[in-house]
Amino acid sequence: xxxxxxxxxxxxxxxxxxxxxxxxxxxxxxxxxxxxxxxxxxxxxxxxxxxxxxxxxxxxxxxxxxxxxxxxxxxxxxxxxxxxxxxxxxxxxxxxxxxxxxxxxxxxxxxxxxxxxxxxxxxxxxxxxxxxxxxxxxxxxxxxxxxxxxxxxxxxxxxxxxxxxxxxxxxxxxxxxxxxxxxxxxxxxxxxxxxxxxxxxxxxxxxxxxxxxxxxxxxxxxxxxxxxxxxxxxxxxxxxxxxxxxxxxxxxxxxxxxxxxxxxxxxxxxxxxxxxxxxxxxxxxxxxxxxxxxxxxxxxxxxxxxxxxxxxxxxxxxxxxxxxxxxxxxxxxxxxxx
Length: 338
Fold this sequence. Notes:
By secondary structure, the chain is of the alpha/beta class.
């Protein structure tokens, strides 16, 4: 099950073709899923449910996104919508550009420009340290691809690291950037997630099957929950999804060692972290989307890989992955390392 947001149509043909190109036989079945920014996490949760129900024994869940080739507004064609959409405030708000929802969160909850820029600085600093120490190497599968420069000249390159990390990012530097979405606003290119391409996958299996195959068991899914919030402040979703997921498994924030909370925008991430009281030293220890990027469909599964990699490195036990979702939702998965 592969999450994707910006593919034409439902993306079902694309993932089937990709499955064949990856070497899987025609007897293998695949499905695409779209829950916007939580698509990768939702894919993992859905595969886990299929395993738990006995429908399947092994599944691969993940996601991909080519943000450089996509446009988030392409899927919205006002001239094809029912007039009823424009008569329903919540339905109409679902068409609001994501940058404006970030501005709404900042204004409604008093998140200052300096708070947003500081979170961005911290994200790049932590990601730079992780990259310098080689902590990402176990998460990334190197591959070769062809790129073209501005003149159209093609060359083959090896992709083996994230290229959005800016080690030299400072508050002073970010403070010089102009608002990107609203005149007089506080959301900039520097305190928003980057436009990035990416793909990630997680292998899930029934425990007895994993043991029989000789697979290393990294951990288990403890809980998953989603929560709905007003579309115009969609970024606050994690502040509601996280408590819901923790309640399901009888845990509290104090039981969590690492919080992977997506940084779609610094405004919403700051609000959620402060609202819940998440300790900053436990937050995104390898940096977040402002440094690593947020390829919509793959972010959730990527964050799970990052979480378990960091849990193993630090010999910690529990962590969660959470993100806001466009149109007004939040998702959260709670995981435990073994």
